[in-house]
Amino acid sequence: MSISGYTKPWIAAGFAALALVAGKADAAQCGNTSAGFEAWKREFAEEARGRASAASLAALMGTSYSTATISADRGQKSFRLSLDQFMAKRGGPAIVSRGRAMKQSNAALFASIEQRYGVPPGPLLAIWGMETGFGAVRGNVNTLSAVATLAYDCRRSAFFTDQLYAALTLVDRGVLNPGTRGAAHGEVGHTQFLPKSILNYGTGGSLDSVPNALNSTANFLKAHGWRAGAGYQPGEPNFAAIQGWNAASVYQRAIALIGSRIDGQ
């Protein structure tokens, strides 16, 4: 929903918080506990003036330090598993079975996506199944709070600072709002796009819509070098596009394997 034309309580609160900032602050200081988060928000908002709107910065000032996000960020142990272990833990066989059924029941949608982007159903269904169980589990963490927490956190501050600026732009566009909820790292929708990916590869509309999410995912893969008709297993041309989706090697190989089984390869 657009936030222009009227004043919400969270905007008024944000303006009040911003008013406490006197003069231009030095670079916002990252931290590894919640103690400095409120001061960091004020410093960041002062730095961001002119790059982000007053309304989006007010939304930022309404965020809270997300302990759920930090816990998830520190606990990604499954990426250290072998491929077989990872497939078992993430329910690979069930994703293949459900993916084959979804491929048939959504045949027209997948045909139109493949015609437009050159991406077959298998990898898209593998991503959809792996990310959210085909939309069943999309997360319940406040998105702006998650991204702001990771921008403040020292571990990957630069990466998530870019994501935060993207999120503030999406607030202005009405794509995100202060109540948007998703996964612990700020991903939203059926295939879990981070804010910057929404800006760069989103094809329009909410990613809580299945067609929008799958079209956007295919657009992401095409933008990362996907070539129609080429293979997507490790060592084949399109595997590099899958690598662009997630940095974890075991995750990349799982997507390729699940996708091939869905596509009947």
Provide key terms for this protein.
2 domains, globular, 265 residues, mainly alpha
pLDDT average, as an integer?
Answer: 90
Shape: globular
Number of separate domains: 2
The topology string of helices and strands comes to: HHHHHHHHEHHEHHHH
> For the record, what CATH class of the largest domain applies?
Mainly Alpha
Strand order of the largest sheet: 1-2
Question: What is the third-level CATH name, the topology of the largest domain?
Answer: Lysozyme
Biggest sheet descriptor: 2 strands, antiparallel
Q: What is the count of helical runs?
A: 14
From the helix content, strand content and strand pairing, which structural class follows?
mainly alpha
CATH architecture identity of the largest domain = Orthogonal Bundle
Distance between the termini: 43 Å
* Percentage of residues in strands: under 5%
Give the number of DSSP strands.
Answer: 2
* Low-confidence runs of at least 5 consecutive residues: 1-26
